[in-house]
Amino acid sequence: MTGQTTQKAWLTAAKRTLSRNHPNLTWDSFAYLAGIDRRAFKTYRMPEDSSDYRKMPPIVEAAIKALIDRSTQPVPPMSENVPEDFSPLVPALAALVMRQARLSLVEGKMIAGNTRTQGVPVGLLPEDRKAMALVSRACLAHGQPDRGAEIHTLLWQCTRPLGEWLPVLEVIDQGYAETCFIHGEDGTPTAEAEEVASGFGGLTASIEEQLFTKFVEVLGRFPERRACQDYTKVREFVVRHPVVANDVLRKFDVDVSSQIWMLLQQQFYEPVPEAWCVGEAVPLCAHCGNAMKQGKAGLVCRTQACAASRPATIGLQAKAADLMRVTRGIRQYWIEPGLDEIRLYDALVEMGLTAELYPHRDRVDIAVGEIGIDLKAYTSPEILGRRFQRSLGGLAHYPRKWVVVPDWLLSATPSYLDRLKTAAYREELLFLKVSDAIRLLKGEVHA
Ligand SMILES: [Zn+2]
Hints:
This protein is α+β, with helices and mostly antiparallel strands. It has 22 helices and twelve strands. The strands form four sheets. The chain has a five-stranded mixed beta sheet, with helices on both faces. Strands 1-7-2 form a three-stranded antiparallel beta sheet. Strands 3-6 form a two-stranded antiparallel ribbon. A hairpin with a 2-residue loop joins strand 9 and strand 10 (371-375). Helix 5 (89-105) crosses helix 6 (126-141), helix 5 packs across helix 10 (191-197) and helix 19 (381-390) runs parallel beside helix 21 (416-424). It is globular and about 80 Å long. The termini are far apart. Bound molecules: zinc ion (ZN). The site of zinc ion (ZN) has 7 residues, from loops.
């Protein structure tokens, strides 16, 4: 950088140079590629008279120069050296995760991501091998260690944010850097993996549909009104009881049909393993009732949404033999999103509003009069936005359509709502955080 050029102008010129090879380069992906903290990078781009302005340390300038050198090396014009198109990389990987999850959750085999050390053989289809090879080539082309060669290693990597182990432009530019495809806790695929995989690689019914086939089938035999009531009753009970005492579960509402009751007892719940004991008993979370586990600094709730949003507080303790827990698929599809849904629902009821939970068998999460509310906790606003761009889902049935995101998620992700709005590109949707949704509805109550 010469004495006359401002830092801002120099960085803008650097970005322009890099953009020749990376047409969609954003400031964030620029920072990522150069290994610079995103927030620090912003201060370097400020005008010099701004109070936020910081001078770039020499090491940062050197990193950017090295990045430009790497990126602007001419590609030899021979056809075999044409850079490979990695645009299918992320969807192919997500589809691989979903196929493995299907084996695990629907057909009852263990997911490989959790059995890395046990080396359980996993049936790999040709498209699985293709996806793995694509990951391998992307790693090697970007000077990374080969992380696609072995299925267990690859699935284990998928429990980490993609940007940490697959730092390639196709990941960074599409907003996938912070996204994990598998929950580390129990090896189930994340909502993001499911969304990115949808429409790729010929997946038919969603895993959720397959898991709940029996439930839906039994409900389908009832008159509509009854079916909707029982659906909400069962789901609300489950969401409020990620772990439940045996006798409480057995006493579950006698009004529901015996088939639904049996499903709840036998398919939605399973015994709590002894391994969940800390000392003699299983500690339960005072907020949500789920079991707690040993974390780095003491006990933490096993529901991620709970652990991320409230201080760990131990409630009751009970013997493992006296408890049941929801099965893995249910945890993934009902419990994790359910925590914020129930919290919002309870807040609305407390305000005196007539709110319906999971109306019409989960058309939306909550309905308040003509407002349909979907509560979504995706790490990536881009993936969530694209989901709504593809389809409004059950919100289409409501004149007013709200997409509500938990406050704890917003504070962890910069410009979440703006990014979500841009990605969804739907004027009919109102995007807001939970606390604002409550405030807005309170205003309407008092108006
Ligand atoms: Zn909890």
